[in-house]
Amino acid sequence: MDRVKTEFNDLCITEGSKMDKRKNVDQNEDEGRKFISKNLEAERKRRKKLSDRQLELRSLVPIITNLEVQVNHISGTKLWIKIVFQKKRGSLTKLMEAINVLGFDLTDTSVTTSRGASLVTSSAEFAGNFPCELLDADQVKKFLFEIIRSF
């Protein structure tokens, strides 16, 4: 069977030049089939633009450190202390020394660090020489807050 030559013969897909209709695929590569995206450059520009805007926004917003102190009375001479502060070298040691200076013995202490922040929760019992009525939970909170700010 011989083919009849018509003007449409040039539009036919022949054996040597296959084309996948679902994807743009270039088969002229020596390595085989390689995917070529229609919107590759547009997508790169979009990602670059988003990245630049994100960096610009980060430069405008100051670094905010979480600083939180909670002090609650559990019973007569016991306090529950929760402190969140920026993790720095020696800061936990200074904090523990400050709590000891106040005259508290720490029990059930838990320290958690994540992404540059430290969380310390503890039960503290007053063991100082002066009456514990002088130390209110708010006073202890203010004292610890100032200690943490000095780090």
TrEMBL record:
PANTHER family: TRANSCRIPTION FACTOR DYT1, TRANSCRIPTION FACTOR SCREAM2-RELATED. Residues 68-148 form the Plant bHLH transcription factor ACT-like domain. It comes from the Eukaryota. The keyword Kinase does not apply. It comes from Handroanthus impetiginosus. Its main location: nucleus. It is found in: Nucleus. Keywords: Nucleus, Transcription, Transcription regulation. SUPFAM superfamilies: HLH, helix-loop-helix DNA-binding domain (SSF47459). GO terms for cellular component: nucleus. One of its GO terms (molecular function) is DNA-binding transcription factor activity. This is Plant bHLH transcription factor ACT-like domain-containing protein.
